[in-house]
Amino acid sequence: MAKVTRVGHGAYRVDHDGRQEIVYVAGSRGSMWAFWNGEQFHETPALHTEHASPQGPRMLSSPMPATIIKVVAAPGMTFRRGDTLVVVEAMKMELPIAAEHDGIVKAVLCQEGDLVQAGQTLVELE
Question: What is the distance between the alpha carbons of residues 77 and 55, in angstroms, rounded to a whole number?
Fold first, then answer.
């Protein structure tokens, strides 16, 4: 059985099988990000970070308050599922925001250096 202890804002120590590891957690209910051992994990309902109406574009949104440190996406650019479109920095960690499907970038609504809020649309996708 694992024991979890909060050690700071968004930081938890997990004791399991004689090992101690730190897990960082960010986001809000319905869109949580966890960072552990160099890996990132994202829990979200499908419609929360990337959503679409039958006639409208899909939106790629910031999972948490962050700073945009790199914008890879450009209008008209084609991308494949898993391609990084934007990189944000939050809690002193870089977080690549990747496409969850293949498509084309319709519009880029952020630029490097921007401060963004959780849920703010960063890229419109087709």
Answer: 20
pLDDT tens digits for range 78-89 = 999 889 999 999
Whether residue 72 contacts residue 85, with contact meaning beta carbons closer than 8 Å, is answered with yes
The CATH number that applies at residue 44 is: 2.40.50.100
Return phi, psi of residue 81, to 5°.
-50, 130
User: Is-contact 85 73, C-beta < 8 A?
Assistant: yes
Distance CA 68, CA 100 (A): 19
The first and second tokens of residue 52, run together, are 């679409």
Residues spanned by the domain of 34: 3-125
